[in-house]
């Protein structure tokens, strides 16, 4: 009897002034769940450029997932953000959790300038909208550890048959937004529901829908 | 055996392009609940200047509440907003649900320029923060039907012994924010929890805490 | 030969982390100018509750203006904000320039809860729009020294025949916004032009236009 | 006597509901100016995918610039935005000025996923900050005609010796922001000054400074 295909779902450790990271708070609740005949492996990545790279390589080697979805905190965003693209640059506005603060260094020296997500982002968008969850396609995952991991996942997937990858940013949790004037937030239940929905779509659909979701700038 | 004291909790009908109003979606779930020895009477008000006034007068006469809390939708706000003050003006950016669009008319001709909330707004703020819910003190309830009802509740309470009143704005629900780019939202469960918390504080505490919650502008 | 009527135009000293205050940078350029047969007296007020009150009383006594316009910095606002109302509360988010940080104290104990501007705010709004300058009617001047001075000006004017008063908030200058991520700003030339326009309207017109400029919340 | 090297500086025609485009309003004022021994050729591009491509190819062929700087309107941004990267996708939120609305099509089929700016963006950033002008490095130029032209300029430059290219987004002008609630704006004088500054830096400096300007998400 064959093992079910695996989804590797990653969250991050807290960084900056935060004591929790909403990505891990949500992602951990899906560990070992079955979604569309796939088994979810939730994995915690350190918010650190080099350590997260090593950790990602190890867990991909071990889990051999067919789908990788990285999840990260986007403090200040008001909705779920499905990332369209990851770029080959590290430009850290603050030190990562090991104190490293690279400026304008490549994620993968010699790698392509960018990778587009290979998950069906427009179908994921439509499925979340149908669930009544606020969501957008984002054209930047920033230049910190989130973009770095998004790029590395796509770089990995580009070299393996049958592996697809993508990244999603999520807002603060309400408990984080309490002490941050004006910061929007999203309930953890809604984030968990959103992850379940997008993973189901990603597991079932390879070719994306043709749906407009552009931005003017 | 005496009747328990009553809390009159009001929500509004949808307005503008909306088909639901989050205030009523949350408020209705608390109807008939017991909170700190008070019985909650949830009541739906029309989003219309004159009709809401008549309806409010009738229900106050009938229920004889000791506490009035008006709740309204503040589309675009990212957190619970406890209103500090209501002003004696109607200046409608869009027509109300009966088509009326007053410009710079008094809510109560000859009434004071403003009323301050007589609920313990700082204690309510602190209690919500302790619950992990994003909240702020707001210094304007706008100039539409929400401010109008807030002013009328406080005007009513100013004339009766033992009646206190206040108003709270709440964000869009996630299902409303879906089709509104950038609009923040809050889960209905969190709004309901927030209402329960602030009503408990309002029922138990008359003198407010001395806590800073100012804004520079 | 009689003296021309005077306009008292006030700006504030810098506060918080700022080394300039855009209100004074703009206001000072209009000192001694003639606008619609009035002479402008520009005066600098300290960003401090008690000192600004004393200073305002002294300068009003000395200048005997027929029009008072207070101007203050509203860091974070993107446009000129003509204030509709000032409320009788001090609730300081940060200490003023003398270290005082009042919480929920009255500006004038026993004074009315609020005063509405007695300048023709809608006509001023329309005149600025016609000039191509972004402007809004605001329903809160906050709870710091700006609102305090706005309230005091209106309190003063309420007690004198032929004296009218109002308040306008202005954005950061570009040079301040440089180091503040996302903060909008407005060029000093545009602010000075705006002040000239609104003072001309205020000098010429006593009864306001009936123009809608409301907000929903 | 040899001709001076040329800078090709482009602006766009108005689109959407706008009757002006701030990019062209500013860019046109620099036509034929000398900046750091270069001659500026200002050129108007249509806000249309195919027409702008043809127009760009023709003018590059004619002018043979050593520097290309595209400028475009970013309605809603509060500051000058120096773009770091352009991506190989067209995803139009609204129809372009010829009615075309491509969804998820490549700018250059078979081209790289993205190009990084080859102008010294960090040195340009620092020079604008020193001028007191609010500026940021942006990691997305959107997916409409601006990103399309940014990509095409960089694609062109990638194939020619000694040609460098980049893109800058600018806010609305104040006269546009008048009727757009909350929209920030920037004075035209400041935009023109900013363009002069960045072109001087671009003309004089090939290797960029190493300055952090990252974003977390």
TrEMBL record, chains A, B, C, D:
<dbReference type="InterPro" id="IPR033693">
    <property type="entry name" value="PGPEP1_Glu_AS"/>
</dbReference>
<dbReference type="InterPro" id="IPR036440">
    <property type="entry name" value="Peptidase_C15-like_sf"/>
</dbReference>
<keyword id="KW-0645">Protease</keyword>
<dbReference type="InterPro" id="IPR016125">
    <property type="entry name" value="Peptidase_C15-like"/>
</dbReference>
<feature type="active site">
    <location>
        <position position="169"/>
    </location>
</feature>
<comment type="function">
    <text>Removes 5-oxoproline from various penultimate amino acid residues except L-proline.</text>
</comment>
<dbReference type="InterPro" id="IPR029762">
    <property type="entry name" value="PGP-I_bact-type"/>
</dbReference>
<feature type="active site">
    <location>
        <position position="83"/>
    </location>
</feature>
<keyword id="KW-0788">Thiol protease</keyword>
<keyword id="KW-0378">Hydrolase</keyword>
<dbReference type="InterPro" id="IPR000816">
    <property type="entry name" value="Peptidase_C15"/>
</dbReference>
<feature type="active site">
    <location>
        <position position="146"/>
    </location>
</feature>
<protein>
    <recommendedName>
        <fullName>Pyrrolidone-carboxylate peptidase</fullName>
        <ecNumber>3.4.19.3</ecNumber>
    </recommendedName>
</protein>
<dbReference type="Pfam" id="PF01470">
    <property type="entry name" value="Peptidase_C15"/>
</dbReference>
<comment type="subunit">
    <text>Homotetramer.</text>
</comment>
<dbReference type="InterPro" id="IPR033694">
    <property type="entry name" value="PGPEP1_Cys_AS"/>
</dbReference>
<keyword id="KW-0963">Cytoplasm</keyword>
<comment type="similarity">
    <text>Belongs to the peptidase C15 family.</text>
</comment>
<dbReference type="GO" id="GO:0016920">
    <property type="term" value="F:pyroglutamyl-peptidase activity"/>
</dbReference>
């Amino acid at each position: 009897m064959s093992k079910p295909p695996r989804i590797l779902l990653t969250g991050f450790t807290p960084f900056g002034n935060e004591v929790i990271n909403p990505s891990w708070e949500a992602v951990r609740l899906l560990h070992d769940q079955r979604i569309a005949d796939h088994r979810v492996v939730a994995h915690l990545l350190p918010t650190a450029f080099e350590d997260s790279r090593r950790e990602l390589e190890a867990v991909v080697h071990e889990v051999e997932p067919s789908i990788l979805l990285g999840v990260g905190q986007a403090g200040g965003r008001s909705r779920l953000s499905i990332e369209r693209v990851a770029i080959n640059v590290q430009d850290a506005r603050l030190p990562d959790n090991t104190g490293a603060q690279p400026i304008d260094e490549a994620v993968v020296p010699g790698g392509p300038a960018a990778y587009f997500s290979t998950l069906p982002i427009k179908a994921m968008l439509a499925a979340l909208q149908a669930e009544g969850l606020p969501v957008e396609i984002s054209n930047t995952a920033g230049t910190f550890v989130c973009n770095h991991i998004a790029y590395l996942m796509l770089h990995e997937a580009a070299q393996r048959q049958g592996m697809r990858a993508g990244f999603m940013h999520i807002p603060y949790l309400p408990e984080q937004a309490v002490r941050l004037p004006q910061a929007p937030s999203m309930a953890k239940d809604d984030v968990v529901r959103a992850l379940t929905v997008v993973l189901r779509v990603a597991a079932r659909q390879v070719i994306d829908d043709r749906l407009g979701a552009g931005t003017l700038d």
